[in-house]
Write a structure and sequence with these properties.
Blueprint lengths: L1 H6 L5 H11 L14 H16 L11 H6 L34 H14 L4 H28 L14 H12 L5 H5 L4 H19 L12 H17 L5 H14 L4 H9 L15 H23 L19 H20 L24 H20 L3 H15 L25 H18 L3 H25 L3 H9 L6 H13 L3 H14 L4 H13 L3 H14 L4 H13 L3 H14 L4 H13 L3 H14 L4 H13 L3 H14 L4 H13 L3 H14 L4 H14 L2 H14 L6 H19 L1
Helix pairs in contact: 3-6, 3-7, 3-18, 6-7, 6-9, 7-17, 9-10, 9-11, 10-13, 11-13, 11-16, 14-15, 15-16, 16-17, 17-18, 19-20, 20-21, 21-22, 22-23, 22-24, 23-24, 24-25, 25-26, 26-27, 26-28, 27-28, 28-29, 28-30, 29-30, 30-31, 31-32, 32-33, 33-34
Subcellular location: Endoplasmic reticulum; Membrane
Family: Belongs to the TMTC family.
GO molecular function: dolichyl-phosphate-mannose-protein mannosyltransferase activity
């Protein structure tokens, strides 16, 4: 039958679509499910997808959100909009050797809009947009699945028909409630995947619109093909996977529009069958459309390559250990094992983790490893599906299986390590688009079972049960993404061998002040990965604060030995050496840190402290000045300059520096306090008093603020106010140095005045 179609004269597309509807089996015929009008089906999908992730709306910024949003200068109004087109997703210059080369300017632009509308880093707005995007995508999936499962047919008025309303609803619901999508929706950086998916689907639907017969009677619209290419380019500017829609549009065109039998076409090509020339394919414009898609894709990729500037990003072994294996066999085996784990996450999304690197999945190094079974199972299923997709006599089955496999595999290719090394082992977010293919295959399998089953309602109840379980799992998982503590702790049971999981739990505990518990997790991270320099650095910092200087020095020395350009570890090593009074070594460590990170204000600040301890006052002032030049809001550096100039009797210079600092940081009470002290010594009592009162208003529980204001009043002769503030200071801190003595002096003076008055 297929051969006869290919040899025949190419029919009008409207006739093709009409015959498709007449002859192809309807998936919905044997399926026991709810039959809803298109509008209501979309409402149901939108509501259920919203319920899955609604509880993430007021979550915090977690995990990668800090780097992509909070620390990303591209979100701030002072950064020119043009910089977004030259920076990567994390705000680094694409030309930098340290850039990850993830070019997603449109996603960053939406973050920037979120930031501007919210007036700061308030996560609610960011989360709400993510939830809305997922609901919108899920609604669009109703239309997409109706085309992929039921075929493409238009009425005479150009309105597309939904030929599979039941199965398209099932597939859309499966997509909407899949727990593996939680990272994309509840994690704000997942916005990249959501935006990419949105324009990916719009590109596909736009391509389908090209086959509505227009008024001129042409078979297809070049305009909509070009619109599809442009939407594919926009998808890629949201995330790199977006470019794959152009390949999928070509596959859809060949299979659905031109009804190609791939196996038959291959056989004809191998045998150089001349009947191929008369197949009528070119008359339907397939070659022209494929040329437009390929030309558009090549142009987009070339521009993307030119913008990237340098070679591919440099990842480390801990990011993707299999890609660093010397043996091609080990690399191939482990890549395939990763594919099987991704497939398992689609089938059974129960064990989910925010990060799968750093030993979470040990390398397979031998064929005797039992995990080889997972590879065999994966390829057994894939080969079986591919054989059915190519060799089945049922053209309807061939089409759906090929489309299902296409949507499963093609969007996953950029994350497969086949073309370039990626910076992760498994990332749940990259399965967002491939899950479309999974939903097609699952729904088609369900329809086949329904056709064979006698009790169809039992199957329907089973599918409904899967949906309910997935909704529950989504709600549970999205609640874990609400805070870093819950997110990191949830990973301990999934990936106990992952050093990064232990590191993040430790860091979260340390940020909350629980240093003892943090030490335990940092030590475990270092045990699991003895080269984990960031864990060593953080552990060394805590030990330094606990005055366990010897072990802190050992850890930090090992960290810089493993990674000689680790500037933060060099600076912390300098702080420890300074505490151990090994000043020359400390100075050398500080300068090494600055050598590896030219703009390092905190290191200049600590170098200034070292010089101050050595009474090298000019060097100290220069170091602190460098810190404030690099970071004008560096309050500690400004304060130390004021205090040093004050202590050395340079009151005029101290006053000038204090005024300069307050112009830059007008609400810093510690700067107000330091400048007030200087003004008091310069007998500018009124101005000094005003600054002291302002500082106290900002920080009313600082005993030293009240104590020094009391000294000012004491000098000024305002003894009653002096007495009042001495008493407040002593109440806040009974052991405040000097305050008790000054207070006693004041009391004696007041007693003497009373006696004289008497």
């Amino acid at each position: 039958q297929i051969c006869n179609q290919h040899n025949a004269e190419a029919p009008n597309l409207e006739q093709v679509f009409h015959r498709m509807a007449q002859t192809e089996p309807n998936l919905d015929h044997d399926v026991s499910w709810f039959l809803l009008p298109s509008y209501w089906a979309k409402m149901v999908v939108a509501l259920i997808s919203f319920l899955c992730f609604a509880n993430s709306y007021d979550g915090d910024f977690v995990f990668d959100d800090s780097e992509a949003i909070i620390n990303n200068k591209d979100l701030r109004a002072e950064t020119p909009l043009g910089d977004l087109w030259h920076h990567d997703f994390w705000g680094s210059k694409l030309s930098s050797n340290t850039s990850h080369k993830s070019y997603r300017p449109l996603t960053v632009l939406t973050f920037r809009i979120n930031y501007l509308f919210a007036g700061g880093f308030y996560p609610v707005g960011f989360h709400v947009i993510n939830i809305i995007l997922h609901c919108t995508i899920s609604v669009l999936m109703v239309d997409v699945f109706s085309i992929l499962l039921g075929g493409l047919q238009f009425t005479n008025k150009g309105r597309r028909l939904n030929l599979a309303p039941k199965t398209s609803l099932i597939a859309a619901l499966l997509f909407a409630v899949h727990p593996v999508h939680t990272e994309c929706v509840a994690g704000i950086v997942g916005r990249a995947d959501l935006l990419c998916a949105l324009f990916f689907l719009l590109s596909f639907l736009g391509y389908c619109k090209a086959f509505r017969e227009n008024k001129e009677g042409h078979n297809f619209s070049i305009f909509w093909v070009l619109v599809s290419v442009i939407l594919g380019a926009i998808a890629m500017l949201c995330k790199e996977q977006g470019i794959t829609i152009l390949g999928l549009n070509a596959v859809f065109d060949a299979l659905v529009i031109n009804k190609l039998n791939v196996l038959e076409l291959i056989q004809k090509l191998l045998h150089k069958d001349k009947s191929l020339e008369n197949a009528g394919l070119l008359k339907k414009g397939l070659l022209l459309r494929i040329t437009l898609l390929m030309s558009g894709g090549a142009t987009i990729l070339y521009i993307r390559w030119r913008i990237m500037g340098t070679g591919p990003p440099a990842f480390t072994e801990v990011d993707n250990p299999a890609s660093f294996a010397d043996s091609l066999f080990v690399r191939a085996i482990n890549y395939n094992y990763y594919y099987s784990l991704n497939a398992w996450l689609l089938l059974c999304p129960w064990w989910l983790c925010f990060d799968w690197s750093m030993g979470c999945i040990p390398l397979i190094k031998s064929v005797s490893d039992w995990r080889i079974i997972a590879l065999a199972a994966l390829w057994f299923c894939l080969i079986g599906l591919i054989c059915q997709a190519l060799c089945s006599e049922d053209s309807h089955k061939r089409r759906i299986l090929t489309l299902g496999l296409g949507f499963l595999i093609i969007p996953f290719l950029p994350a497969s390590n086949l073309f370039f090394r990626v910076g992760f082992v498994i990332a749940e977010r990259v399965i967002y688009l491939p899950s479309i293919g999974y939903c097609i295959l699952f729904t088609y399998g369900f329809s086949l079972l329904s056709k064979q089953a006698k009790k169809k309602k039992i199957l329907a109840v089973a599918v409904l049960g899967i949906l309910v379980v997935n909704v529950t799992r989504c709600a549970l998982r999205s609640s874990q993404w609400r805070s870093e503590e819950q997110l990191f702790r949830s990973a301990l049971s999934v990936c106990p061998l992952n050093a990064k999981v232990h590191y993040n739990v430790g860091k979260n505990l340390a940020d909350k002040g629980n240093q003892s518990a943090a030490i335990k997790y940092y030590r475990e991270a270092v045990r699991l990965n003895p080269k984990y320099v960031h864990a060593m650095n953080n552990l060394g910092n805590i030990l330094k604060e606990r005055n366990e200087l010897q072990e802190a020095e050992e850890l930090l020395s090992l960290a810089v030995q493993i990674q000689p350009d680790f500037a933060a570890a060099w600076m912390n090593l300098g702080i420890v050496q300074n505490s151990l009074r090994r000043f020359e070594e400390a100075e050398q460590s500080y300068w090494t840190a600055i050598k590896h990170r030219k703009k390092y204000p905190d290191c200049y600040y600590n170098l200034g402290r070292l010089y101050a301890d050595l009474n090298r006052h000019i060097d100290a002032l220069n170091a602190w000045r460098n810190a404030t030049v690099l970071k004008p809001e560096h309050s500690l550096a400004w304060n130390n300059m004021i205090i040093l100039l004050d202590n050395t009797g340079n009151l005029a210079q101290a006053e000038a520096v204090g005024r300069e600092a307050l112009e830059l940081i007008p609400n810093d009470h510690s700067l107000m306090f330091s400048l007030a002290n200087v003004l008091g010594k310069s007998q500018k009592y009124k101005e000094s008093e005003a600054l002291f009162l302002k500082a106290i208003k900002a920080n009313p529980n600082a005993a030293s603020y009240h104590g020094n204001l009391a000294v000012l009043y004491h000098r000024w002769g305002n003894l009653d106010l002096a007495k009042k503030h001495y008493e407040v200071s002593l109440k806040l801190d009974p052991m405040a140095p000097g305050t008790k003595e000054n207070y006693n002096l004041l009391r004696r003076k007041l007693e003497q005045l009373q006696k004289k008055g008497g």
